[in-house]
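Both lines are given unchanged directly below:

***
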Amino acid sequence: KIVDKINILIPFKGLRNSKTRLSKILSESERRKIALNMFEIVLKASKESSADSVTIIGGGLSSSKIAYEFGVDWIDPGYEELNADFMHVMNNKMDKGFSCVYVPADLPFLRGADIDFVINASRLCRNIVFVPSIGDGGTSCMLIPRKFDFESRLGSDSFMNHLREAEKRELNVSIVTSLELGLDLDTEADLNICEKYDPGFTIRLSESLICHGDC
């Protein structure tokens, strides 16, 4: 049984200028639909997991609408910098007794069981857990126990930066890898991996689900 309560934190920068690195192969409308549909996939997986609560960070009006529809929390600290916004909300949740799981909004194959895999890897929140992104050196997911003093290093080469931060603070670390957790969709190479893993993926993701009038 998990001793700490678990809160999932999902930063979302909104739909404006979504997935610009795919602009050579997808229209703006297609990119916005894909970004929103991945966001909804991540939200559904988060709600299906064993976590106690889910919080969307940032994203403006479109995020607040989706938070209301999914019955999750929404906080926009207003710093407009990923680490600053994330740390503000994480510290707030930890003060309320939660350990926190960072989950990005662009994991197209994520399931509730994958998030539970990360939660279980923390060994009842005794370990910090990192999931490396496939191919770009980023961090696709991490669990930060409430009792740990830890500074987020989201951004370029964040996986190694997070490992160094944990080593510096002498924290117990677990590393988890899987395609479902590690594949975030940012580039044409990522899209090719998605298509190989799930043929027809691009068409389905750019046409499926509801776009809330924002596509």
User: Anything to note?
Assistant: The first strand starts at residue 5 and ends at 11. The helical segments are 28-48, 60-70, 82-95, 112-121, 158-168, 179-182, 188-197, 201-207.
